[in-house]
Amino acid sequence: MPKYTHHLFMCMNERPASDPRGSCTARGAGPLMEHLKVRAKEMDLPGVRANKAGCLDACDRGPSLVVYPEGVWYTVRTTADIDRILEEHVKGGRVVESLRMREM
Predict the structure, then answer these.
(1) Residues 93, 102: Cα–Cα separation, whole Å
(2) Which residues are paired to 100 by β-bridges?
(3) Does residue 69 have a cis bond before it (omega within 30 degrees)?
(4) Longest dimension (CA), the chain
(5) What are φ and ψ of residue 48, in 5° steps?
(6) pLDDT tens, 27-58?
(7) Residues 6 or more apart from 17 whose CB is under 8 A from it?
(8) pLDDT number for residue 16
(9) N or C: which end of the chain has fewer CB atoms below 10 A?
(10) Is-contact 93 48, C-beta < 8 A?
(11) Domain ranges in the chain?
């Protein structure tokens, strides 16, 4: 049996400010990642692991968060977005369509 039921990856890519694609870090991924880790622990979600990721190649739509095993990509802009994903998707099993990343 796998150790984790859900594995969440937050893009922490950082590009130069002059790069037209931008980067998830420049869009606030750092504080969002910290909130994700703290909130997941507070919610006592067994089997959930949150990790920093290198470039997920979606920084222009980021900050990017991917939830596995479903492989659902989200654009997260606020801590409230993180809370909704943890509560509705990870805990409740329902994809948060309003936060789902548009097609790549």
Answers:
(1) 20
(2) 74
(3) yes
(4) 46
(5) -110, 130
(6) 999 999 999 999 999 999 989 999 999 999 88
(7) 26
(8) 87
(9) N
(10) no
(11) 1-30+44-76+93-104
